[in-house]
Amino acid sequence: MKKMWNKIVMILFAMTLLAIFTVGCSKKEDKTKSTDANSTQSNEKKEEAGAGEEAKEKTTKEKTIVTVYTGRDSAVLEYIEPLFEEAHPEYDVEFLNMGAQEILERVRGEKENPQGDFWWGGTQAAFEIASSEDLLEVYRPSFADSFPEEYKDAGDRWYGEILLPEVIMYNTDMLTGDDIPKDWEDLLDARYKDQILIRNVLPSGTMRTIYSCMIAKEDASNPEKGYEWLRKLDANTKEYTQDPTNLYLKMTRQEGSLSLWNLQDIMIQKMTNNQPFGYVMPESGAPILVDAVAIVKGAKNLEGAKAFYEFIFNDKIRLDLAENMFQIPAQANIPKEQLPQWIQDLDLRAMEVNWKVIAEKEMEWMTYWDENIKDKN
């Protein structure tokens, strides 16, 4: 009986172990199935995410970057960028903002490996120099015939976009009535000592041109007369500011009441940014720059540069920029009655300037000014 009881106990124990083992295997199998299912779902999600990233990357790759070197006011850039990218979704435009002279030096330095595609904004003198150094691509745009000969390069290397009168700028909160200078010579008056702020000259195409025109106005064949004029201006100059932003800031803070600057940027600051700025069209005339554009020689995105070129000369864009950004179009085919009222009313008095002489002598004259006149009077 005892042996039989022991046998029964052994059988029950064996059956218990078998049951435990069976349940354990079942749970392990369920866990394995669950893990496999989760792994499958995870892989599916990874594949979906990967497909999304791939699609995103593909979309980015489909947009090619158009690199634009420009001296344009930030308000103009903010206006043009979304319009161009909407019209040309295949391109993403990137602006590098700097002075016209800085652009020339950069394009010159990158000649063997161009990093920019399009040069937007600079003096005629700067573009003439760039043309002579073979830095610009030959391209005849669709609108070429709408330009007077004096506003474009005969070899189709650059075209003038706008006309920039260089004028006397003043703070309207500081100067009124007879206190406002009427001509260039008035700036040399002792009453304006430490009232004049000048944007740093050498990096600025605008300032280099104004100063060169002042030298040429005195006597282009004998620059000493012009140098003497600049010495007197330097004596009245309180500070040479780093860039246009600092010029506007210091003028607004009334750290100075006068400057020499271009009409378009003064109007933008006055009308768009509500700055207390006014301008004087000098009685003896204002140098009127042809502010130009060009494609960089060897541009990596040549087709994108061409598309941008054509876009900014679109008739609607030209008129919008004239109305809202105070640009004077260089094209001769725009009827006067279509131009904004401010241009029709503009009393534009042009100074007679030999631009060929300016292009040839500017570097020599400005180097002399920087080394012998600046901050020495």
Automatic annotation (TrEMBL):
Region annotation (Disordered) ranges: 30-60
Gene3D superfamilies: Periplasmic binding protein-like II
InterPro entries recorded: Ferric-bd (IPR026045)
Keyword annotations: Signal
Biased composition (Basic and acidic residues): 43-60
Presence of keyword Hydrolase: no
Domain of life: Bacteria
Signal peptide range in chain numbering: 1-19
Protein name as catalogued: Iron(III) transport system substrate-binding protein
Taxonomic source organism: Anaerocolumna aminovalerica
